[in-house]
Amino acid sequence: MINLLLSVADDKLFLGHRNSDWTGIAPILEADIAFSSLAQDDIAHASTIYELISTINGKDVDQIAFGRTAEEYLCASIVTTSDSFNWAAAIARQFYCNHFDYIRLQRLGKCSWEPLASLAKRLTAEQAIHVGHVSSWVVHLGTGNEDSTTRMQEALDAYAPLGAMLFEKPDGFDVLVSEGILTQPDDFYATWKLVLDEVASSAGLSLNLEQIPDDFNGGRTGHHDEDFSASLAELHEVFSEDPSASW
Amino acid sequence: MLSPARNNPPKKTGDLPFPEVDAFPIWEVFTQKKQTDEHVHAGSLSAPTASLAQQFAREHYGQDQVCVNLWVGCRTDFISDVGESGTYEVFVQWNSGDRHLHVGTVQASSGQDAKSKCKSQILGDKPHNSIWSIAVSKLTVVDGEQDLIWRTTDQTYRLASGYSRVVRKKWDAIRESGAVDTYQDEDLKETF
Amino acid sequence: MSASANVEVNVNDCAKADPKKLAKFEAFVAGGGLIESTDWMPEAYRTLMLRMAEHHANSEIVGALPEGEWITRAPSLKRKLALTAKVQDEVGHGQMLYEVAQDLGKSRNAMLRDLITGVTKYHNCFNYPCPTWADVCMIAWLIDGAAILNQGTLAHGSFGPYTRTMRRINMEEAFHFKHGEDMVLTLMSGTKKQKQMAQAAFDRWWGPSLAFFGPNDRPDERERPAMRWRMKTATNDELRQKFVNRFAPAAMATGLVINVCTKDEDGLVTSATSDPLLKPDKSTGNWNFTQPDWDEFFRVIRGNGPCNKERIALRRFSYEQGEWVRRAILNGSTSTPSTN
Question: What own/partner pairs with CB < 8 Å and gap ≥ 24 does A211-214 have?
Fold first, then answer.
C-alpha cells in the first residue's frame, strides 16, 4: 500500500515541483498565475497522501517527502524530465500526466480502504480543474497557428514514450488487486488513450503512443535518470543542510 | 543550483527582434463569496478567448477567498450601449472608488436600455457613479458546485490567518516586553 | 518615484489650459474624492499616475525573480507551497497593476518591452542577490513588511483603480509578511547555523529595506504633485521612520544585531558594525538610526548593482521565449464567448 501511495504522491510532488519553477517566468502573466495554482494543487495533493502514509508508518510528513534516497522515490520519469523552458513541452507533459492522474484518482476513489477512497474522491474534484485547463491549452495551441501546431505536435511526440511509462506498476500493486483492495479493470491505458485522442484530434494533433513492455523497469521501481537526480538535488538542497532542523 | 531556465539567461540588449503584438481583449471578473451574496467586481484581466478568460479568472480572482460562483465578460460588453434584446445583468458603482456590485436583472432591448431600466426599475432616485450592464448571452458563468473554484484541500498555507497563531506562539517564546509591544502596533494590525 | 522637471512644466500648462477644471479637480482630490479612469484628470496627473502604476507593476514582476530562484529548493512542503504562492501573488499584483496602467493609456506589451529594454525602472531592492534560503525569509519579513507600510498609505490615494488594487494587494502582503515572520522566527529559534545564516541575510537586507522607501524627502515634498494630488499620502522619511520604529526593536528581540554594512559589487557584505545610533529618542519615541548608504543606492539604481543585468536578462528571456505562445493564441478560433 505504501508503495502505491508513494507512486501517486511522488508523481504529484515532482510534477508540482517542476511546474512551480515556471512561477514568475511563464509567457503570459495570467497563464503564469493559473499554472502556478495547478503546481500548488499537485504539491498539496502530494502532501495529503504523505500524511496518509504517515498514518501507516508514523513518520514525519516532511521526512517522508524529503528524506529518502533516490531509489526510494517511485515517480515516473515524465514528471522530472526537463521541459527546457518550452511552454509546449510543459503543456504536453501536463496533458499526459493530468489525465493519467484524473483516471487514477477516480479509480482509487473506489478502493476498499476507506481513508484512501475518501481522499481520492476529494482530490478527483480538484483534478478535474487540471484536465480542463490542460485540454484547453492543447486545443488553443493545436489550433493557433502553423508554428504552434508544429511545436505542440513535436512536444506531444517527444513526451509520448514517457507518458506510456506512467503505467509501470509499483511493487506490490498486483497483490493489492488480487486481495480486492484495489478494483482495477484492465482498461486503464485504453481509457486514458481514448480521452487523449479525443482532445488531440479536436486540436488537429495526433498521438503516437505505444504501451510499455511488461518487464519495463523505470521510476515506479526506483530506477531514475539524470533529470530526476537534478530535481532531487534541488528538492534536497536546503533540507539536507540539516534534515533534523525546523525551517 | 538554479534550474536551466533561470541559470544564466542570455544578456541581450537593444531592441526586441519582433514587433509588438496586439493586446488581448480585457475582461471583467465578478465573484460571489456565498450563495446569498451579490456578485462583486474583483478586477480585470487580458485574454484572447472566453475559455482562457474563464480559466484565468478562476485561478486569479477565484482564489483570494472562498468563492462559489464567478462571472466573466468582455469589458466592451459591460460598458456598451448597443446590443440585442434580451436579459441583462446590471451592476452599480455607488460612489467613485467603490467596486461595481450586481444589483439585479432587467429585460432590455440594448445595453443603453438595460442601463436606463436599471435606473428606473432598481435604483430609483439613489445617486450613483456608474452603471454596467451585460447581456446574459455574453456572460460566462462558472458555478463552483459543478466546476470547482475554491479548493477543498487546506489553503491556509497561503493566507495570513494560517500563520497568526503560530507566529504569536513563537514571539511569546522569545518575547521581550516593550520591544514586541511596539511591533504589535495598531496600524500594522489594521492591515490584517 | 519622483516627478521630473517635464511633469512640473505640464502642471503649469494644466493651470493655464483649464484653470477652472484644474481647480475643481484639486478641490475634489484634496477633499478625499476618488478619480476613476473615465473621469477628467489633468494630463500631468495621468502621466504621473501611469508612471507610478507602471513602476509598481514592473517591481512586482521583477521582484518575483529572486525569490523564484528558491521555490524548487524550499526545505519543507509547507514552505514549498507558501513560497510558490507568494511568488504567484507577485505575478498577480503585477498583472493587476499593469491593468491599472493600461487604463491610463499604455498597453501592457509596450510596458513589458520598455522594462526589458531598460527604458523604465523598478524597485531598486530587487537588484540585490538572494544567495541563501535565509535571504528569502528576510525579503518576506523586511521588504514585504516595508511594502505593507507603504501600500497601506497608498490605499488612501486619489486614483480609484489604484487604491482598489492596493487593498487587494495588501490582503496578500499580509500573508507574505506573516509567513516571512514565521520563517525568520523559526531560524532565530533554530540551530546555530540557522541563526548565523539569518544574521548574514539580515545584514544584506536591512539597508535595502531602509532604502525601499526612496530617497530622503525634498523640502517641498507636500507641494509636489504626488502629494498635492494625493497620489502619495505619506513621505518617504515618514514611512522609513515608521519602519525602523517597528522593525528595529522586533529584530533585536529575535536576537538579530542591526549592523551598518559595507558591500562589494556583488552585493555581499564586506564589513558589519553594530549601528551606534540605534536607540529610541526620549522625547519623540522615534528610533534614531544610520541612514542607508545613499551612494550605493544611486549607484545601483543607475545600473551598476549586483543583479541589474541578471534580472532584466531573465525577464527578457521569459518574454522572448513566450512570444510564440502569445502570437498563437491571439488569433484563437474560439473567439466568441461561450458558457461552459
Answer: A211/A164, A211/A167, A212/A164, A212/A165, A212/A167, A212/A168
